[in-house]
Amino acid sequence: MKRLWILLIIAVFCTSGNLFAQEKGPKQKIMDRLTYMKEHLTVSEKASANFWKSYEQYLKDERAIMDNYRKNLEKQGIKLGAPGTNKEMIEKLSDKQLTYLQDQKFDMRKKMLDLEYSYYKKFKTMLPPQTLQKLYNLEYKYKRTMTAKMKDEKKKKNDEIGPVNTGKKKR
């Protein structure tokens, strides 16, 4: 009987793991992306060590720019979700907040472009052009996949909550 209770308790803990699952943190997201790239991009042994260290630093620098962007927006009371999921939130912003949002967006995009260009110069000394092109294609594919996944998760979450009463009458 004691064994049965122990097995039952173990089964409950094993099956309830999802109940306590938390959203992935920035470090885990970077590691997931790094793992994805390592699985899909072939880099020569000679270039491998230096390239993957530089690529990981690039991901960290990119994350720092995004974190700074979000912090600046939150200081003004602007909280963004996944790209493409902010339509309702943006419609509620004041003119001053919208101007601030656009200014911050252009500033962030400029910093991202500067970062990408500086790492492009570094990466092209480590990788042949075909591999470098594949890297950028994989980056694009990964970002699109993650954006779609976040949209799906938000939609699924909203579906679980149920329809929101917008106050509009159906005709």
Quick gist of this model?
This protein has 171 residues and is mostly helical. 74% of the residues lie in helices and 0% in strands.
Mean pLDDT: 82
| Strand elements, count | 0
Order of helices and strands: HHHHHH
* Major sheet size, sense and barrel closure: none
Q: Helical region count? A: 6
**Approximate shape:** globular
Rg, please? 22 Å
What percentage of amino acids are in beta strands?
under 5%
Class by SSE composition: mainly alpha
Q: Which regions are unreliable across 5 or more consecutive residues at pLDDT < 50? A: 11-22
Question: How would you sum up this structure, described in words?
Answer:
It contains 6 helices and no strands. Helix 2 runs antiparallel to helix 3, helix 2 crosses helix 6 and helix 3 (about 45-75) runs antiparallel to helix 5. The model is unreliable at about 10-20 (pLDDT under 50). The protein has about 170 residues and is mainly alpha-helical. It has helices at about 1-15, 25-40, 45-75, 85-90, 95-125, 130-160. The termini are far apart.
